[in-house]
Structure formats: structure tokens, C-alpha cells
Amino acid sequence: MIYNRLDHASYQQSFTLVCKRFLKITNSRRVSINFSSNTPITILCRLLERFSNLKKIKVCNFKGETYEAILEIARSGLDLEELIALSYRRSYPKFWLEELGSNMKNLKVLKFTGAEGDADFVRVADTFPQLEDLHIEDEAPHFISVTDEGIDYMSSKLKRLRKIDLSHKSRISDKSLISLSKNCPLLEQIEIQNCNSVTQEGISFLVTNSHHLNLLDICNYLKIETFGVKGSTNFLTNLRSLKLQHVDILDEFLFSIIEARIHLTNLALMNCKSYTFTGISRLLQHSSQSLKSLELGGSRGVKFLTNEHIDYMSSFLQNLTSITLFNCSKLSDSAFVMITQRCPRLCHFVMTGSSLGKEEHNYDGLMEENRAIKYLDLSSHREVRPTALKRLLNICPEVEKLKLQDCFFLPDDQLNVPDILECNRSLVELNLTGSHPITVKDTELESSVLEKLIVKISMINDISLKKLGKISPRLIHLDLTRCSEVTAEGVKEVVKSCKRLIYLSISCCENVDINVIPWIVTNRPSLKKLLSSSRCYPDDKTHKLFLQRGCLVLKDPSFIPKGDKLLCYL
């Protein structure tokens, strides 16, 4: 019971140090593990022995040969349900698929980097007849990729398949969708991204004949005029999530969803064109009781969407728990206020690239605080006054994660970080990547609950960093990547103040001397991972010494040498 209340991994690590019995309890309760790219094969083997009840393993961009790691997993005696093994390098699945299949009879989810197109799908189909979720990422999709024949064979074998990702399968066509629809009666989720030979006809056949389909994710440069076979309305009764990217859709397509009596819970139209306010508003009205998540916009935004449109549509959005509005430049403070006031269940709110702070909105004092919002992203805004930002943040006082990335404030009106912490006393994560100018003025705020601070590519200096450390003693994650004004002295001060620090990045901090790294590792025993400011330090011997102290110190991958200088590689 006590263990169940330890919701953070760092607390569980401390729990294991009490006695061997607690260590045994922790080991036995762990069901998933993620092996980083820096995990040596010897450490991987030891961890597989230590955690005997693992059900899910993720091995991405493994430092050694990926197939060697998977063979060790196959021979570990574990009864896995999920294996994810993605890599930039070839994983040689023909060497390990058969052995993995003979030892992992209950594997339900398999995702890996393939290399032989159809051959990979044939091996999987013959080896894992119980598989429910499959994603084979092609190593070189433009040269070797699965074809319709490979998909047809695989679908004829995997009768229990529920999820499949067909992203970047450039050689498949509508035939693959027909095979999946005919052969996999339990199919629930499918992703179709950058499959250039897939057309509206194939998608129509899929949605008309896959009666259990509940999620459809399409990212293709194609035009869809209607949903399903024309004249048919008895299809996709289970569809709940529809995600479209770079798709040309007409209002008639949105109307066909209404005619089919589909009540969506998740709708995402990213970088889609040709639909109008009439189409989207009618669909939102139809799904008003069921819709929980809405995403609109993209790199192009939604050019027609205005504050007046939000005013009209907000009455259909009262049950939303998540809304994302990317680069809708005509939206401003009024839209923000209307959404916060009329969506009482909203937990996740993203409104980027809009005109926030440029409207003289009448704050009449009658607005209610929206305490449901826990995640707020107001990134990519220009010429914003911090006073306007604070007024908006005061409406959402219970925000726990705040993202203000790439925000540019007026030169004479710097963003004072303590003001943000004052507005949101529950804030545990703050991302100010690329935002400036920011400062840390003296404040009466004694202490915040902030645990994660990301100030990459900012002009924060030693003085501000020291003050941040004082008011944020609970920090466990600090990212100072490319903070050119920070020196070793500033880093020392924040390390002294933050006694719980687990992760620290000083990558591309050109003024931070590498000689401070041994001091950091020695004086902050809680630290588990540190990204160095040098691409040459630490060497292998020093790296091992740091590991013995419990800290993984990595060379900076972002620096490249040029003459006698170190330049930051973008």
C-alpha cells in the first residue's frame, strides 16, 4: 500500500535502498522498462535477470547491435506482452523473429525496424499468430518496403489483429486496405501516413467493411469527398477517433459523418483544407454530447476561424476535456476567455500562434476561474506583454504544466518567471524554450512546487539562475541547453539549492567549464543523468567513475569542432 503511493520513480529508487526485502518488492512489481541508447548489452542482461515480471520492453536506437539485444530478451525467460525495438540501424529481424516467437507465446504488441519489406511481414505472420498490434518501420522505405502481396499474406494469418500502422509504406495501394478489411474482422485502429497510392476508394471500402474500427488516422495528400460508399449509412458505428492530416476534405465529407450517425469522441483536422465553418460547426453540434478532444489548425492554421466563430461553437464544446488550436492567427484573448468559461471540464488547452495579447479585452471581473485546466500551451506568440499573459493565466490558477515556447515579449517588458509561479501555485513543469527576454526579479515568493524547468535557447544568466534555484528547491529536471549566458558559477548555485535534482543538461552551454562536472556529480548525489557541455568529455574512464557514483554523464552530441573552437550544431 505504501509502495503504491510512491508515484515518482525517484521515490521508488529511494525505497529500494532501505533493505533487500524492499528491493525485492520493487523488482517484482516492475512490469515495463525502457532501455536507452546508451545501455551496454551487459547491463541489459543484468536488468532482464533482476526484473523477472517484465511485460513491456522498449529498446530504441540501441548502442550495440539491436538484434543481439532482442536475442537476449528472447532467451531471458520473460513472458512479454509488448516489445518495441526501433532503431536507425538495421536490426536483422530474420535472426531473432523465430526465436522470439517460440519463447514469447503471449506477445500481443510488436514494433520494430525492418529491412526486407514483404519478408519481414511474412516472418511475423508465421511466427506470431496471436499478434494484435503491429508496426514494422522500414529502414529505407523508398528502396525496400512492403507491397500489397506482403500485407495480404500477413492479414490472412493474423486473424486477431486489432491495430496496424502503415506509415510510409510507399508501395502499398487500396488492395492492402481491402485485404485488411476482409481478413482482419477485429481491426480497431489503423494509421495510413504517406501511402501515396492509397485513394478515397480504398478508404471508403475500409470504413464500410471494418465494423469494429474505432480509430482512423490518415496523413495523405488526397481528397475525400464523402465517407464510405455512397448511399451506405450503416457503417463505422464504433468509430470514435478521426485524425486527418494534409487531407483535402469538403463540407460534404463532414456532413456524411453526421448522416452515418457517427458520434466522435476525438476529432483532429490538421493542415486540412477546403472545408468551411458551416461544415465543422454542424459536425461539432452533432457530436456535442460525445466529443472529448478537438484539434484544429496545423502549420497553416485555420484561416477562416475567428473569435466570433469560437463564440458560436463554444456551446457545442461543453464536454471537451482537450482542445488544440494550432496557428489560428485570427483568434485572440476573447477566444481564450470564452473557451475557459464555457468548457468546465477542459483539462488540456493548447492555443499557439494566435493573436493573444493584442486585443483590448474587457476583463469585467465576472469571469470564473477554470480550475480544471492542468496543461496549458501558449507557445509561438509575438510581441506579447507579460501583463496580458498574467491576466490570462489568472483564469487558470490550477495549471500544473505550462508551455510558453518561442514567445517573444516586448523589449521593454521582460517576462518575470516568479510572476508565472505566483499565478499558478500548482505549477510543476514550465517550458520557456526559445522565449525572451525573461528575467527573475526579487520576489516575496518563498518557494514553488516546480519540479521540471526547461529554459533552452534562452538568455537566462547566472543571477537569474541562482534566484530560480532559491525559489524552486524541488526541481528534479533542469534543461539549460544552449544558454550562452550561463557559466559554471551559475550552475553550481542552482545545484546547491536543488537537492532533489535528477536530470541536468548543460549541452551547448559554451561558457560552462567542463571542470564543474565532477563537482556536480560529487555534490549532488540525487543526480542520475547529466548532459555535458563538451563532445569530448567525459572519456571512457571518467564515464565509468561517474557511473559508480550513480550518475550517467553523456558527451554533448550537439557540438562539432571547427578549428580550435566548439560551435553549436543546430
TrEMBL record:
GO terms for cellular component: SCF ubiquitin ligase complex. It holds the Pfam family DUF7885. GO terms for biological process: SCF-dependent proteasomal ubiquitin-dependent protein catabolic process. Coiled coil: none annotated. Residues 143-297 form the F-box/LRR-repeat protein 15-like leucin rich repeat domain. InterPro entries: FBXL15_LRR, Leu-rich_rpt_Cys-con_subtyp, LRR_dom_sf. Transmembrane segments: none annotated. PANTHER family: F-BOX PROTEIN YLR352W, PARTNER OF PAIRED, ISOFORM B-RELATED. This is F-box/LRR-repeat protein 15-like leucin rich repeat domain-containing protein. It comes from Chenopodium quinoa (Quinoa).
